[in-house]
């Protein structure tokens, strides 16, 4: 009984630490996200806490939901217009990741994100569908409490929904990669040089994106490069960096986000962020599937070669199926005709051969008549 109680206390202590860690990460990432707020100091085009919440649920299970609630409460405590509105916003922020988690589990989502099925599930179920709950609850609450005018509902809803969805698309894959990260072994110097070159290229693209030059499309070659060469481990961080650069440019009104209305800028920004995240996830998943297929083909070829070598060493040959050796008579011949029995191999070619080589017997020799 003492050992069982100690085990329960240990598991309870671990669960409490996990809940506190999730709450701290949620609150800290919320403060970072609010640095780029756009609507009422509360709505941002990238909300990292949703990505942290979904990743925590996928990694540790639904038991850590109190950490999400606590983190959302701390993040919105100084922002809510009233306690009732604060309660509704916190409920929406908690239910949205739980809905995403339930949808992903039902779809058979795998944490490795190495299948197109997993990438599509994270995009359309975890991000686009699950985050409808938090955007609708939060925007509706702000309108009902008169903290937001009715004519700004759809603008706020759009920014809220896309911000939460972008948090899932660009933050959750990075956390899933970090949780499975291991120190690389036997890495060639050329591989390290390629990693450093990719980092340098990403920094240069970020500098260009945040300047007045509208060259956001330079991020897509980086995404494809990272996905092909480093799979999800390279594509996920690059997608997060590219989205961050675009958000900074939009917040400063630089590049393609200059001299436009907020709704137009947000549509442009989130379309760009969504396209970059989709490109990174889909290309990385497709390349991972290709690699896995090649490994399976190589494994099958290895098994076949081993089998052939064993057969050649033992001298064993495949045994052909036994033919029916029962005698069969030709159709139309009587039993007393004295013809050879049919062996079952009377093909058309043999019948033609037998007809072409048949010669009638010569007539019997008759002695000459002496008279």
Write structural notes for this entry.
The protein has eleven helices and no strands. About 8% of the residues have low confidence. The protein starts with a helix and ends in a 15-residue tail after the last helix. It is mainly α. The radius of gyration is 37 Å and the shape is globular.
Regions with little confidence, pLDDT below 50 for 5+ residues = 331-358
How do the SSEs run, as a string of H and E?
HHHHHHHHHHH
Terminal Cα separation, in Å?
A: 135 Å
The share of residues in helices is 55-70%
* Shape descriptor: globular
SS-based structural class? mainly alpha
Output the radius of gyration: 37 Å
Provide mean pLDDT, rounded. Answer: 79
The main pleated sheet reads as:
none
Provide the β-strand percentage band. Answer: under 5%
What's the total number of strands? 0
Number of helices: 11
Please describe the topology of this protein:
Layout: H1 2-33, H2 48-60, H3 65-76, H4 83-106, H5 116-129, H6 132-144, H7 153-179, H8 189-209, H9 219-251, H10 262-314, H11 348-356
Put the structure in a nutshell.
Helix content is about 70%, strand content about 0%. By secondary structure, the protein is mainly α.
Key features of this structure:
single chain, 371 residues, mainly alpha
């Amino acid at each position: 009984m003492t050992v069982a109680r100690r085990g329960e206390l240990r598991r309870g202590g671990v669960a409490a630490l996990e809940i506190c860690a999730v709450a701290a990460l949620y609150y800290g990432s919320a403060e970072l996200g609010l640095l780029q707020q756009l609507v009422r100091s509360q709505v941002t085009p990238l909300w990292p806490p949703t990505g942290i919440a979904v990743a925590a649920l996928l990694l540790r299970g639904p038991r850590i939901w109190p950490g999400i609630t606590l983190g959302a409460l701390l993040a919105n405590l100084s922002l809510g217009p009233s306690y009732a509105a604060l309660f509704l916003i916190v409920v929406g922020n908690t239910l949205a990741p739980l809905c995403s988690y339930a949808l992903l589990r039902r779809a058979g989502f795998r944490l490795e994100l190495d299948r197109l099925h997993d990438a599509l599930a994270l995009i359309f179920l975890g991000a686009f569908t699950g985050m409808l709950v938090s955007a609708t609850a939060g925007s509706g609450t702000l309108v009902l409490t008169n903290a937001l005018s009715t004519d700004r509902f759809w603008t706020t809803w759009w920014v809220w929904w896309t911000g939460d969805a972008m948090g899932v698309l660009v933050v959750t894959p990075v956390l899933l990669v970090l949780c499975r990260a291991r120190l690389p072994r036997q890495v060639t110097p050329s591989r390290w040089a390629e990693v450093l070159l990719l980092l340098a290229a990403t920094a240069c693209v970020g500098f260009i994106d945040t300047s007045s030059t509208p060259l956001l499309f330079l991020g897509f070659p980086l995404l494809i490069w990272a996905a092909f060469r480093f799979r999800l481990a390279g594509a996920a961080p690059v997608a997060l960096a590219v989205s961050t650069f675009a958000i900074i440019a939009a917040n400063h009104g630089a590049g393609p986000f200059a001299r436009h209305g907020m709704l137009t800028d947000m549509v442009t920004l989130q379309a760009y962020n969504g396209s970059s995240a989709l490109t990174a996830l889909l290309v990385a998943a497709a390349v991972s599937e290709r690699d896995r297929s090649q490994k399976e083909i190589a494994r099958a070829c290895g098994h076949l070669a081993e089998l052939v070598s064993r057969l050649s060493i033992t001298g064993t040959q495949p045994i052909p199926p036994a033919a029916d050796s029962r005698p069969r008579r030709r159709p139309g011949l009587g039993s007393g005709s004295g013809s050879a029995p049919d062996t079952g191999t009377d093909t058309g070619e043999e019948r033609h051969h037998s007809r072409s080589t048949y010669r009638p017997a010569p007539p019997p020799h008759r002695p000459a008549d002496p008279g």
